[in-house]
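Subject: for your reference before the review

Hello V.,

The reviewers asked for a structural picture of the protein, and I figured it would be easier to keep everything in one thread rather than splitting it across files. Below is the amino acid sequence we used in the manuscript, unchanged from the supplementary table.
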Amino acid sequence: MAWDVRVCTRLADLYLAAASQAAEAVAEQAADSLKYTELSATYEFQPVAVDTHGPLRVSSVSFLSTWAARFLSVLANRSK
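And here is what came back from the structure prediction:
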């Protein structure tokens, strides 16, 4: 698995148009602009985009929730 995190702000000129459309649009635009097509052919790739003044990308929330649950499970098993 490969993942990349991009933190963006809706105040940047690049994202102003998206910010006026929908709350999650800035994170969506930031994640969609990541260019990792070579990785996606070899790995399961997940872009994680965070808007500093708004919500995370919907798929980022799902990915991070799953990752955190697995991480906590591993930690719990190590402490046994």
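For the response letter, the relevant points are probably these. The helical segments are 16-19, 25-32, 37-42, 58-78. The chain has one domain: 2-78.

Happy to draft the paragraph if you're swamped.

O.
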